[in-house]
Amino acid sequence: MSPLPDCQTLLLELHGGVLHITLNRPDSRNAMSLQMVAELRAVLAAIRDDRTVRALVLSGAGGHFCAGGDIKDMANARAQGADAYRELNRVFGALLEQAQHTPQVLICVLQGAVLGGGFGLACVSDVAISDHKAQFGLPETGLGLIPAQIAPFVVQRIGLTETRRLALTAARFDGAEAQRLGLVHFVEQDAQALAERLDEVLQQVLRCAPEANAATKALLLASAGQPSSELLDEAAQWFSAAVTGEEGIEGTLAFMQKRKPRWAI
């Protein structure tokens, strides 16, 4: 296989045909920085055509999966203007598209924060296993922003009606509710049960032929219809307008200052 790229924000462990990818920025609850996005995309590209890699297991270090986008990257983009915000936003959509279409079976193990971009990653998994205490949500509107790149994948995963409720209330919910919504397939009570469920799923995946799985996954995705690149391009423009607008400025500033934004009652 092609050598795996060197990563500073990811831990990579390959054995038995399974590549374990751990998001490794625990101090920020594994917030998705531009560097992490680039490294994840490089890993997915490196193994895309390698059928000796049968499954990918994506998890997070430090008890959290992913708390969303990195506010520091947004602060850096502010000095560069609207185009920088659009590009910052769009690159995450490109990651979601790439992860959605990776030929390997993508399994997400979800603990702690599964918010924003982390929620999006869960929505492009083939199999999602959650701790019952995991906290899911789309917090963007509470920050004066929009879930621009994530929304089409969430709608595809759980349907328009529930996505409208979650995106327009920024409501948080646990693993049991995530299972009810169809976001996750399994909910477990502790770390040992999560590990046992993961082993069971991997045993099932490894009984399937890798080329057949890759072709079947492509067929299923094509049958369901896909979030389009054109829509995601337009959504990135909307995100840029939101983040540079009055609400986006107030919402992100309030987040960094650990206070409620002006509109919050």
UniProtKB/TrEMBL annotation:
Family: Belongs to the enoyl-CoA hydratase/isomerase family.
Protein name as it appears in the record: Enoyl-CoA hydratase-related protein
Cross-referenced Pfam families: ECH_1 (PF00378)
Xref: PANTHER family: ENOYL-COA HYDRATASE, POLYKETIDE BIOSYNTHESIS ENOYL-COA HYDRATASE PKSH-RELATED
